[in-house]
Amino acid sequence: MTNYLLAGGGTAGHVNPLLALADKISELEPDSKIFALGTVEGLESRLVPERGYQLLTVDRLPFPRHLNAATFRFPLRYRAMVAKVSGYLKENRIDVVVGFGGYASAPAYSAAKALSIPVIIHEANALPGLANRWAARTASGVGVAFKNTKLPRATFVGMPLRPEVAKLAEGISMADRVAARAHFGLDESTTTLLVTGGSLGAKRLNETIDAARVVLKNAGIQVLHITGERSELDPVETQDYVRVKYCDRMDLAITAADFAVCRAGSATVSEFAAVGLPAVYVPYPVGNGEQRFNVADLLAASGGLMCLDADFTLEYVQDNLIPLVSNSRKRNQMATAAKTVGVKDGAQRLLNLVHSVLGPSKNNI
What we know:
365 residues; alpha/beta; Rossmann fold; seven-stranded parallel sheet; 16 helices; 14 strands; 44% helix
């Protein structure tokens, strides 16, 4: 029996692989204990308990990037967080810490190192985050979701997929597709475009697709549009256009779709590649640009296309997107190419890496 602490959270890109690994451990090691470490503000505060795992919490403490008052308070607050995590590790007799990045990971890495508990890192983005870059130098193992991720001693494991998405990667039948479209009130035989900007949404995608509703309809394309919870667009349900703010059955949304328009977050890229869903990726234009790196291997394999945020306009939909979505031969070619890049068993690969660090005495498989 092994006691695991899985640390990370904040965004779906951190929470989903954490939960995927937790589910794989539960499936294969029913006697092991799994604890998650996160914050009360992140998605993990809802998703982890819903999945049946115990969530331990720490404060959300951003690393100061500019010299100000918070810079001088940071060391003391960080030491307090490390002490709190150390208490969790001792109380629950944790054997190994697996970190996925985010605010909760850094204090977990520090506390585990101080207690000589092995640390395994999983980096979901091609451009690593600060906490994982720092910890990778001394971690017992480093797993990455993309081959072009530059971290020391990295092992390519792919992205741990949610069980429901991993099942789709084994194949989607026509009956599955018909049922999924019926779930959303869509026509069972019409070419279907999925549009999603992630859990918080994407303003450019939302506005452009809303403006393109008529031209998409006239082209014989129906749309499942997930706007994100912050969007000001109201839900809509018509025969050829369904718009929702949030979808808790993304496996059905993927099943219903022939093509997608989306951001290039690590989870989205990994899931669509594994399933073989061709897509136009519109990377998030703000921040350090990691989304452009996430899609690099997929683009090289011709399993997807990239459109810059500023270029995703009504004209792009008319001149580029509609001809592509309407071409079933091209869609199928892209789907096949995407699968050559996708990884279906990322959760098992990551667990194998964890076991290789723990050694035979703690290896339950």
